Amino acid sequence: MATPTLKDLAAATGVSISTVSRALANHPAISPATTQKVKAAAEQLGYRPNAQARALRGSRSDAIGVVIPNLADPYFALIAAAIEAEAERVGIAAIMTTCSESPEHLAKALDALTWRQVDGIITVPVEGAEAALKDAAKSRPLLLIDRELPPFPAVTSDPRPGMFAALTQLRQKGHRVVGYIPGPQQTSTGRQRLKVFRGASSEFSAHYAQGGFRRKDGYVGALELFEKGITAIVAGDSMMTAGALAACYNAGKAIGEDIALVGYDDLNLFRLQPVPISVVDQDMAALGRLAVQHLTKAITHNATPTGVKIPTSYIPRVSTARQFS
């Protein structure tokens, strides 16, 4: 019969692995009732703590955990690459996992990283997973990236400088009717960027598509906006940009001639188009680098990480260069 593990105890008691670990260690943050339940389950299952693990518990693993929504999205793939590069530079390992935008999957990922005794965690948050995030943050420094979810510290970007600069150029080029494809409204970034666009587009006749998580949402949104007589589209994230790009091609819209397009995030996909796409740039490398730096500082000082917000910038290219009036 296999030796019972912390994971087995968590399944038997209905609490997280990190809660089981703290209950067995008589951590004051765990209620007496939960501690008693965990210890009773440990006795019933015949759980015995590993002596080597006990000896190492107070030491560092020199590894951090990283949870991102998925690696299919080039934006998150580049964030992960930036985190991994900075972690390697400072001499620590980065253990990567994904959560598919699911709060349940994120909770499982956080539990798995806690079980592996990582020194700290960087994660893109998913709304609905607040309890799991709070639980993980009790035992090690936890830092959010890309999105905000109070009260946890986060490394994010400010959409205002880049978005205002993009709309200023569109206005100077004679555009008066513009469309916006927002990112998912279940995320802080989607909501914040939509709010910024509304404030920055007061001098335009603005139309809004539905948007969402998938490239298909950007595609459908762009087709909807074409029916509104818009001369320019602004996309709220990289997936919406990719969808809008495909819609322009399939609808026979000549980018930079028939329609101006402003994307989000400076990806190779947008730079290397026949008509290079203007973008609001978040500086993904800086986001990943700063996240590792702030997390490792918190680990070193056994403290709560501090968040930071960096400005976006606007990179104008051929897709918005034409004068429309």
Description:
The model has no long low-confidence stretch (mean pLDDT 92). A six-stranded parallel sheet has the order 2-1-3-4-5-11, with helices on both faces. A six-stranded mixed sheet has the order 7-6-8-9-10-12, with helices on both faces. 45% of the residues lie in helices and 17% in strands. The protein has 13 helices and twelve strands. The radius of gyration is 23 Å and the shape is elongated. The protein has helices at residues 6-13, 17-24, 32-45, 51-56, 74-89, 103-115, 130-139, 160-172, 188-200, 215-226, 238-250, 268-271, 284-300, and strands at residues 63-68, 93-98, 120-123, 142-145, 154-158, 177-181, 205-208, 232-235, 260-264, 278-281, 308-311, 313-315. The longest helix is centred in the last third of the chain and has 17 residues, at 284-300. Helix 6 runs parallel beside helix 7 (130-139), helix 8 (160-172) packs parallel to helix 9 (188-200) and helix 10 crosses helix 11. By secondary structure, it is an alpha/beta fold.
